[in-house]
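Exercise (ungraded).
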Amino acid sequence: MHTVYSRINNVSAFLSSCLMALLAAIALSSLVFTADPKGILDVQSLNIYEGHTRRYHNRWQDVTFVNFNLTADLTPLFNWNTKQLFLYLQAEYVDAKGVKNEVVIWDRIIHKKDKANLSLNGRNKYVFRNLGKSFKGASAANYTLKYNVMPYVGLLTYGEAARTGPLAFPEKRTEVA
Amino acid sequence: MFADELKTLRRLGVRHVLLQILNFASVLATGLMMWKGLGLVCNTESPIVVVLSGSMEPAFYRGDLLFLTNPASERYHTGDITVYKIPGADIPIVHRVLETHDVVSKDKGYVSASPLAQKQLILTKGDNNPVDDIDLYQGLEWLERKHIVGKVRGFLPYIGYVTIAMNDFPQLKYALLGGLGLLALVQRE
Amino acid sequence: MDALQAKIQSIFEGKIDFEGQKKVEQISRVTLVAAAVVSFIVGFALQSLRATFVIFISANIVLFLVVVPPWPMFNQHPVKFLPAKSPSNDKKSS
């Protein structure tokens, strides 16, 4: 501690230990907040059309279009260590070949607490298609609204905010109604 | 200038130098051991990674430090943030899982309940990218477990920026070296 | 040239005495721990990470300003060396 250099060295070494302890305390503090808000998710319409997708340009494939209605108040998930909320709508089903599928059809990033009280009509953002050519023979699908809380420091946490009952896939439509 | 150093070296003898080397080697070995041990526990080749691209902004910025695990018994879910490495690509990518398809192989010789027969096909997307990652897969149609380095569990902001800054601004490296050199010259024993 | 170098060196080194070193050690330890605890509590109470880091960083800037330069208050107990003995005395005593 006798020269400027050694003082800077010593103090910044202790500073970094304190900073690490502070960050650890902040990360642990988010375990105190255990909010588990629930919302309501309604799938209003399901339609299947045949179309081209980005993946296979030269192949016809069945594509499902989902319209849904969503109300959820997710503000309790925001605390001092919440950087953002990643909200996503996922469809779960088993197709005719016994393949278990989870497909995200819509998502949204929420940065601010005052935007976390949601009430919206939406439709799928991402192309919803099966591994094979069609959805024929697939089981009824569950639609769930899930969230991922992303902290400034610490562990990522996941949760489920809403769920629909199983909804069967409709027959394919040939012309646009 | 080095006469003093040579004199001290002669005074301390070979044993002292060897001890220094041994100390240095043990520090290196401890570091490596901890890294590999952590990798073993987390079942991933690199349990801590630095974010190099901005495709997951605003979730992760360049320079953020991510802690990964990759338990073999756990399947991947949509919404998980994974780090994957495509064979032939030089840097790993941090993106979120968009689709999973659990295919059970019907091939002869496989029992359908065994993990060998269960293949999970995965599609990912960066939160900040408008479309999914097929174009990044270099010809692969889906990701599989073997491509995935780990799932992101924890997060520390900005700490890794030092390494990125060194690469982005080579001047910084020289400034650092110059500063250290100056310090060594100015300082008295 | 040597004189100039010595002067530059002494500015860069900023030596302080033993009592000063003890004081610096105590000040830095107490301030850092207190800054971490206070900033955490205030930030948690206000539910704002910004408050936490503003407090922590400003406390650290003040700490570095107090501790790093060789202020006169760290040099109030200079070491008193014994007067130099002449070589002849030295020989007799040994």
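Further reading is listed at the end of the chapter. For now, observe: The domain at 48-158 of chain B is CATH 2.10.109.10 (Umud Fragment, subunit A). Chain B touches chain C at residues 186-188 (CB under 8 Å).
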